């Protein structure tokens, strides 16, 4: 699975918003996602297609509906490649500090 | 229903991936040092055991079709609040696509807002990244996210 596809998919704010929505509530239908966004159904479908191609979103059929799930594995692969396994707890501590200070 | 779906594409064969999923000598290298213990028949007991013998999770083999599909029921054994939720279901689907193998792990339980599904959601991405690295490079990832 190409990392290019992942970075390209993440380069768009609407697609990051879609991932935020699935992060908040996993397993949503196209209709539910459209309800949260100021975009046409066609645009949302197109963005979901790009996220699926990058494997950041996985769609599974449930009856006549398709449910969309966020797949964090490609982002984890990126983290493993560059953040480094020994540093991760320090990075986590900094992220926690930032979150605490900004709350 | 609480459910997470994880997908990773690995440059390997379905047979090798199956071995890496099932055999302790592989799982110990990428899966927080655990072994899956079962005789791998439908209805057999299944457990996930740490190297010091503590049992992490228990269940039963619900479906097995090497090297394509494995479904186990899965109950946590070391956190009371998670154990109380009862059995979840973990499904491993292996599918060849071109020269890659697609692994889909689905972990679900028939209740809303499950703490078990929440708890495992932090682990699966790291486990699957580690599995991918092990199969593609022959080396395990160093360390485990704390």
Brief account:
The complex is a heterodimer of chains A (103) and B (146). Chain A has 6 helices and 2 strands; from the N terminus they run H-H-H-H-E-E-H-H.
List the SSEs and their pairings.
The complex is a heterodimer of chains A (103) and B (146).
Chain A (H helix, E strand, L loop, with lengths): L2 H8 L2 H12 L5 H7 L4 H13 L3 E6 L2 E6 L2 H10 L5 H15 L1
Antiparallel strand pairs in A: 1-2
Helix pairs in contact in A: 1-4
Chain B lengths: L1 E9 L3 H9 L1 H7 L4 E4 L6 E5 L5 E11 L3 E8 L3 H4 L4 E10 L2 E10 L5 H7 L2 H14 L9
Antiparallel strand pairs in B: 1-7, 2-3, 3-4, 4-5, 5-6, 6-7
Helix pairs in contact in B: 1-2
Task: Please explain how this structure is put together.
- The complex is a heterodimer of chains A (103) and B (146).
- With 103 residues, chain A is mainly alpha-helical.
- Chain A folds into two domains: 1-71, Winged helix-like DNA-binding domain superfamily/Winged helix DNA-binding domain (Arc Repressor Mutant, subunit A); 72-103, no CATH class.
- Chain A has helices at 3-10, 13-24, 30-36, 41-53, 73-82, 88-102, and strands at residues 57-62, 65-70.
- In chain A, strands 1-2 form a two-stranded antiparallel sheet.
- In chain A, a hairpin with a 2-residue loop joins strand 1 and strand 2 (65-70).
- The longest helix of chain A has 15 residues, at 88-102.
- The mean pLDDT of chain A is 89.
- Chain B has one domain (2-136): Alpha-D-Glucose-1,6-Bisphosphate, Chain A, domain 4 (2-Layer Sandwich), CATH 3.30.530.
- Chain B is 28% helix and 39% strand.
- Chain B has five helices and seven strands; from the N terminus they run βααββββαββαα.
- In chain B, strands 1-7-6-5-4-3-2 form a seven-stranded antiparallel beta sheet.
- In chain B, a hairpin with a 5-residue loop joins strand 3 and strand 4.
- The longest helix of chain B is centred in the C-terminal third of the chain and has 14 residues, at 124-137.
- The mean pLDDT of chain B is 92.
- At the A-B interface, helix 5 and helix 6 of A face strand 1, strand 7 and helix 5 of B.
